[in-house]
Structure formats: C-alpha cells, structure tokens
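Example record for the data management plan.
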Amino acid sequence: MPGSAVSDLAGRVLAGRYLLHGAVGTGASGRVYLAEDTRLKRRVAVKVLHAALAEDTAFLRRFRAEAQLAASLHHPHIVTVHDWGDDEMPFMVLELLEGGSLRAMLDQGSHLTVSQAARVGRDVASALEYAHARGVLHRDIKPANLLFDEHGIVRVADFGLARALAEASWTEPAGAVFGTARYASPEQARGAQLDARSDLYSLALVMVESVTGRLPFAADTTLGMLTARTLQPIVASEELGPLESVIDRVGAIEPEDRYPDAATMRQAISDAADALPPPGPLTLAGMVDRADPHPTTAAPVRAAPLFDQDAAVVDHGHAGEQTVAVKEARPPRPPRAPSVPGQRRLVPWIVAIVIVLTVALAAAALAQVSSPKQISIPGLTGLSIAKATEQARTAGLQVAVGKPRNAPDPVGTVIEQDPKAGAFTGQHKVTLVASAGPANVEVPNIYNAPWPDAKKALDTAGLLYAANPPTAPSETIEAGRVLQVKPAVGASVAPDKQIDIVLSSGHAPVPVPDVTDEKFGDAAKLLVAKHFKVQRAPQDDFSSKVKKGDVIRTEPPLNTPAPYGSTVIVHVSKGPDLVAVPDVTSETIKQATIDLEAQGLVVGNVRNYRSQNSVVVSQSPNSGKVLRGSMVDLVLNPRSGGG
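Corresponding structural encoding:
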C-alpha cells in the first residue's frame, strides 16, 4: 500500500508536545525516534507507526484499546508507555532506553554467555508472568522487542501492538511478516488459539539464538521454517549448559507439554542459574538506527582480522587477507672484506647516537613514572551540569564550564565534554559545555492561512499550539483561517513557545430586516442589501390582514440573527380566503349544515328549531362571498319537522 513506509519525521512536533529528533530504531511496524517531551522537559522515545495504519479503522480501534492496556502495565522489566495518540498517524510515547536492543547486539556479533542468557530469560519471564496475570499476551517476543537500559537491565516492548497489527488490513513492508514469523510458536503457525505458553515458546527461541547465534528451524522459506516447528520440538545444544533442560521443556510442540505458565519457567531458569557463575556485564549496542534488511537470515559474525605481531611484513594489497613474509633460507655469507679507514671513523658516531637514544628513552620512562596518575574520563553528556560536576569530582577531575551553546537538549544539559568519555588523562581536568536550549525561531507568517497549512508551518518551526483554537467572527477573514497570532508574526521566540491562535468563524450573524407589508420585489432588494440570499415560498398564503402581493412573514423571522450570506424564505400574501355562500333555503337543517360546512362556513344562529328535519325558510347572508369560516344564520319553518 502506498504510504505504508514511515518517512523521516525529525523536527516534527506530535500532539503539540513531543519534539522528534533523530531516528534510533526501525522495525516492521514503524520507526522509533529520540524525542523531547516539551511539557515535562524530559527525553523520551516515540514510536511512530506506519502512516497507512491511520486509514485503517479496525486497527485504530484496536490500537487505542491495546495502547491503553499497555500503558496500565507497570513492571521493572516492561517498557513504560507514557502516552499514546493519533496525530495524523498513530504513535506511542515510551521511556527512553539507551542500551539498544538484543537484536542490535546479535547483529553486531555480540552473543550472550549462558549466565547472561539466564539473567535475561528470567527477567523476561517475570515480565510475562506479570502481564499474563492481567490477561495480556505479547504474541511477538523477539530480540528486537527486548531493550536494555544503560545498566543492561532488560525491558519487554510492544505489549499489545502485535494484536492490533493483526487486525490491520494494510500490507506490511517486505520482510515484516517474516520477521515476526521467525519466532512464532507451532500453534501460531497452525492459526490456533493462543495462550500464555505461546509467549514462552518464543522466549525459548530467543534464548537459544542469543547464546548460539543460530535460530532453530531456520529455513530458506518462511513456510518451511513454520512447518518444521509443527513437526519437531526445540532440542537444545550442549552450549546452553544448565539451561538445556529448560529449553527442551518449553520448546515442546504441544502447549500442554510445556511449562504451565511464566512463573514456573522463571523459577526453572533461576534454578538453572544457581549452577552458573555470576553473569558479566553485557556488551550493549546502544541507540542506533538499524533496520534488519534480511529478517529471516541470522546476521553473520564479522570477526576483525587478527594482527600477527610476529609477522615480518603484512601485505594490505588483498582485502580480507593477511600475508606474512617468511625469511628465506640464504646461502652462507662470503668472507667479510677488510674494513677501510672511513668505516672505522663511523663507529664512534654510532656509539654516541646509541648512548643519546638510551638516555632519551630513560628520561621518557622516568617522566612517565613521575607523571600524574592517568584517570579514565566518565561519560557526562546528557546529565545536568550539577550532576556532571558531581560525578567528575568524584572521579578526581577538576571541572571547567565552557560557554553554553544552543542545542535541542534541555537548558543546562551537558552536550559536549573534553576529553571524551573513555579517554585517559593525566591533566585531571574536564571541560563541559551545556545546552542553552534550542535557538530561537521566527513565528511564521500564518495570518489568513488555512488552519491545516498553519499547523504544518508551526510544526516545522517546532512551536506549540492548541489542538482546537478558539474562534471569533471576522468581516474580512474567511471561516477556518487564522485571524490572530500571538506572539505576532515575525517575532523571535523559543522553539517550544506556545503560540496563541484564534481562527475566524466568518462574518458575524446579521439580523433579518423587517420587510413585512412590502411588495416582494422591494423586500428582496432590502434583504440582498444585507447580503442575504432570497427565496420566495413555493406557494403564497391567504391573509385577511395583508393585501395581495405584500410580504406576510420571513424565515427566519424579522430581527432574528441569521448566518451571514444565508438564505431567507419570503412568504407573500394572496389576499383573503373568500368562499361563495350557497343557497340552503328549502333544505332541512341537517342538509343545510352539511352544505355550509362543505364550503368552509359555519352554521350560526338557528330560529324555530324543532328537529333535524325542520326546513330552512331564510338565511343570512343569503348570497355573495364571505371569509372562509364565517357564520350563516338560519330561520326554520316552525310547522315543519314535526314528529
């Protein structure tokens, strides 16, 4: 699907709050950015999902539910979800973990020891135990979803996201489905109902790969790999040591043959770890943007060529090869020729040079011994000046603070240090440069611009604004365009400055003028002068008060505020509603009543009434036209209508 890929959004502000910096990770579902929460002044990670997902109603519905559920999970080995939203594309705001992922470690050729794998596996199982107890399955345990903080503590990411993506109707980028299938359980391959034991199987695959660098059941095709898992259990190699029995149990084909839950697996890993030495520190990959170009193929280990210190000559002419020159067997030397006088004169000079070099080397060695103790420089960037100064002094260093410099980092955060972290120095001094905050930007010229265009300009400048600005009427600016900007256009402000926007709601409502008793043509001219559109009612109305051709009323009524430029319907009189009076003399009172009502008239006073059969001898009025609903008086024959 076009647009499914995530474009580079560096510099974009999401939800008027999260300023995106560089990308630090790319995956099947989206891209992760280092970002700044401008409201709370802290660094976070923002995962922006593919733009095409914003058009998928089913995905958005599931994403909101799963994101809310993921945000409710609070565990030391689960990535904290700070926030989530949908600003033209769905995103999640996560805690920032700077140690990188297990996937990045494996891709750079760093494998875990069995002790390290036990520690990581136990912690992940603990996270799954917590989530499963709350009815949340992960469904996508893989190395890319296991992240580390700067201390090497593992966190599980993307809880619930796999389920939301499963309901999406979009087409994933090439390799995205394969990447997930690499760690799918047999029941996932069969399309069966999943439970907590499916996550445990995927964790077993990850643990095996983390130690051996090889993924069980790897095949040339995804179908072949998944088919193999439905036919064979995971059989751990001897490389896994005490973890071998754990992997064999949780790698069973049928879920009922595995550990019943994550708590049991966690305890089994802990028991195995008791027979192992303490784990050493992990070789963290750090935050880098590494997309896996071949998600179904394990990355090869690229070992650097070893330097042979005994080689006489190294030939660099052939890439990837080392050629060592070997001394050739030489024939016996011929007898030495007698020395000449010039050669003898060189001997004292050579001896002198050797003595001078020896003295110089001795002096250098003495200076080295007497020089100040070398100190390793700690990493101080990213800390506040106060915290960095404290750590530097604890390490035995003097601190010099350079002139602050504009940077995207919060004010007072160390952005540069000299010497760099990891260097050794005998000067016992480090110079720190702090951030003065982002450089000021100019408020863009968005006056009279459509609101969508104005938002893009403000996002580009890194400025904040209300998602739904207030509105005010304007006689000159069209509705939906920017009416007011504060600070004013062109002002120099901090990039996280809140810009107050007022949008035009269009012209204020206009009261409908009084056009009653006016001829229709004259009334229309008065209404048009007030910028109304005029429409005559489909049928004129009878009126006994307004003469024919004059305006009776309008819709909306007179003096009622109506939208500027809206349509006013005009009702015109066609005069009074007159009906002819029928002659009902010589009719019975019963028949006379029927005939009068049929004409829209009403029987008035009746004299000499004896019964319904009494005969009318006179009526008033007796002819002509009268208003509909008028009364007709009747006089009956007193002798008629008798019993």
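Summary line stored alongside the record: Residues 1-5, 169-179, 289-344 have pLDDT under 50 and may be disordered.
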